[in-house]
Amino acid sequence: MAGAKGVGGAVLSAKTAVLCLALFALLYVSVHAGLTALWERVALRRRLSGRSRERRPVEMGLFQPVMRGKVYIRVADTLAAVGWERLAPESFFALSALLGLAGVAGGAWLLEGTLSALLLGLMLALAPFVLLWMRLTGRQLSAQLDFLPAVEQFYQSCLVTGRCHVRAALQKTVEARRLPGAAQAAFEQLSRNLSVGEDEETSVRRFCLAFGHAWADYFGNILRVALAEGNDVTANLRELIGDMRQAQLAQQREWHRLLEIRLANFTPALFLALFVFINFRMNYDASYQAYVADPHGRTMLLHAMALIFGSFVMGLYLSRRRM
To answer: Which of 75, 150, 155, 213 could cross-link to 183 by cystine, CB 3.0-4.6 Å?
Structure first.
């Protein structure tokens, strides 16, 4: 009996230590992220009002020293491609860290075992990234079938405005507002970024990411050449349109396969929800004790959700690869 009490006390002490550590880290990251955002806003207002002589950007972000590489650029491009330009990558990483720490703290309090708490924290930390890739995949699926009519409209604008005036052709294509919804948003973003003086390479790269297939990359290369050298690219556009028309049937078949993969991703979650609903419907009290009141039941549901989350991420990864 004394041994069992000692083991139970040790487990409780470990859970308390993990909970305190997670809460301390959560408080630290929250305060640091809030102060950083406040300081960046004050510094921006000072620079805009001309009261600050400091010309260098503020580098106080928690993730700036370590995330200025490929991951940072990829997240920034994806946020811009899905239309979340106002959300800075630093804020996105801070949100992910906060959710992860909150998951660890909640798991240490509600679940059984340190591994379960870490698993819940990992799932919540990855949730913003999964939501972002889902948003990007959905937008790409909506825009891919509309890409050919958009390129045809842009080609007509090039013929009207002059074969070498790509920026004017983009502006005319956007102002005509004849493009389908997702393609219209991508072309508007590209035209707006180029008009405000953003880096051409970054603007075209984010434009290609909004469509997410090889035809968009080829079209992006044509735009890069036209923007950099001012050459006549109507022949290249005509060739691209011809190739896309020939491959249109195969592209529609691939698009339907991607939809099937996305529908299959939600099947495990649907079956789990149906299973739990039937159990609660048949015997509410026993199901509540088994799945909610008992720590073992909560841990079992967490493991099931972790498996579903893993299969969902794998399906999303396969969808991205097929695109």
So the answer is: 150
Buried b vs exposed e over 264-277: b needs ≥16 C-beta within 10 Å? ebeebeeeeeeeee
Q: What angle do helix axes 114-144 and 70-81 make, rounded to 10 degrees?
A: 50
State the pTM of this model: 0.73
Domain that holds residue 160: 147-246
Q: What is the pLDDT of residues 82-123, one digit of tens each?
A: 888 788 888 888 888 888 888 888 887 877 777 888 888 899
**Contact call for residues 186 and 153 (beta carbons, < 8 A):** no
Q: For residue 290, with 0-12 CB atoms within 10 Å meaning exposed, 13-18 middle and 19 or more buried, which class applies?
A: middle
Does 115 map to a domain? yes
pLDDT in tens, 174-233: 888 888 777 888 898 888 888 877 788 888 999 999 888 888 899 999 998 888 887 788
Cβ atoms 154, 187 nearer than 8 A: yes
Contact predicate 233/226, CB 8 Å: yes
Instruction: Report the C-alpha gap between 288 and 171 in whole angstroms.
Output: 60
Give the span between the Cα atoms of 189 and 45, in whole angstroms.
25
Would residue 55 count as lying in a domain?
A: yes
| Straight-line distance from the first to the last Cα atom of the chain, in angstroms, rounded to the nearest whole number | 60
Domain count, the chain: 3
Tokens of 113: 């075992």
DSSP annotation of 290: I
Distance of CA 254 to the CA centre of its chain: 22
